[in-house]
Amino acid sequence: MTAPVVTRFAPSPTGFLHIGGARTALFNWLYARKLGGKMLLRIEDTDRERSTKEAIAAILDGLKWLELDWDGEVIYQFSRAARHREVAEQLLASGKAYRCYATPDELDDMRKKARAEGRTRLYNGLWRDRDPSEAPLGVPPAIRLKAPLTGETVIEDQVQGRVVWQNETLDDLILLRADGNPTYMLAVVVDDHDMGVTHVIRGDDHLINAARQKQIYDALGWDIPNMSHIPLIHGPDGSKLSKRHGALGVEAYRALGYLPAALRNYLVRLGWSHGDQEIFSTDEMIAAFDLSGIGRSAARFDFAKLENLNGHYIRHADDQSLVTMFEGVLDYVPNGSDLKAKLNDTTRAQLLQAMPSLKERAKTLIELIDGSYFIFADRPLEIEPKAAAVLTDENRTLIARLRAALEAVDPWTSETTEAAMRAFTEANNLKLGAVAQPLRAALTGRTTSPGIFDVLSVLGKQECLARLADQAPS
Questions:
Q1: 4 with 36: CB under 8 angstroms?
Q2: 342 carries an active-site annotation
Q3: Residue 190 in contact with residue 118, Cβ under 8 Å?
Q4: Residues 266 and 305 sit within 8 Å (Cβ to Cβ)
Q5: For 330-343, how does the pLDDT look when each residue is reduced to its tens digit (9 = 90+)?
Q6: In the chain, how many H helices and how many E strands?
Q7: What is the average pLDDT across 227-240?
Q8: Which CATH number does 385-470 carry?
Q9: Candidates 3.40.50.620, 3.40.50.80, 3.40.50.10950, 3.40.50.150; correct CATH number of 80-230?
Q10: Fewest CB atoms less than 10 Å from the CB: which of 106, 331, 334, 368?
Q11: DSSP state of 451
């Protein structure tokens, strides 16, 4: 019977959850969910100077917002340091590791000499076979792995294929520093083993780490997990992803008005494909995901594609859920608190009523907020320059006459207001557009908005007549 699949997402809390980390988490989550396994979360906080509580909170919050749930408690790597030291001592006792008393100056000289001679193995094995009795007094030693000097270290990678390193090029890596702190390489191996991780899915910037970690697994006699090293995400121009390309924290995408489902869908298609399918529900993603669908070349981040996909998700979202998401993103946008203060039963009902029209025009929740401006605007409206140009003296007079015609409309609906406007334009030998645009400017302060009859219906009779009165000729 095969062991259940256990994946892990293991970020370092030295910054927020960036977009590449989010994709790695997603791939681990999908693989575990597809095969009925578990995805564990380990915070690799061994770098005490750079690890922060704020970054840990941002990582957890980002995963929750993306709806990527993990199994069990969060594991904090630093809390397991005693276990890591225990394994280092175990390797020392079995002759698979040794104490190294090399000074910083000696190590520096070794590195310089190796680089000058074009060698990648920077440590010359100074203490590898020396008698410990030669150890200098009062110098705390590091513990190094006694790595094989000849032969090959091989990883059978599910994405990269068979990857081979010549052992003569690999150093005797440090397992335990002179201050007693375990290194990242040792901690990762021990944690993955103790947590029962069966599959390691991570960025290909960790590929060289896989060679070093394989040597530790071999020295301990442990089975190495199944490895998959996924290509990194690049910018549209093929260069390393930077902030100008979209290398932002997940919380930034939330603030930019993207939907979790849309971002998940976009990320799954960055470096993984399933035929020509672009749109995936979460269930479809889980059913289709496999490691063989991950390509070897770097994926390119495309903001326009993400925006279009987000627009698709907004258009197909339930109106009430969009109202909820609209409220949820207000905490993250400029002037969001002002809008929040204006949310009440009336404005929520107006927002819900306007949503079918609003969501057709919006690619992000920010655009949705912007489009709903007319609902929350204070009187007298702030008139944008383009709208002010429409509100000529002649058009203000027209609006005053139209207001008189609309005053008689009862009940007030998009259908009855449309009928009244059409009757008004016919009686005055005008085209509908000649009336609709000044009316839009007077009711919204802008030249673009949802359909004018939707605007009339959403705002209601009393508010519409009041706004039109504000624009009466002086």
A1: yes
A2: no
A3: no
A4: yes
A5: 988 888 889 999 99
A6: 21, 12
A7: 87
A8: 1.10.10.350
A9: 3.40.50.620
A10: 334
A11: -
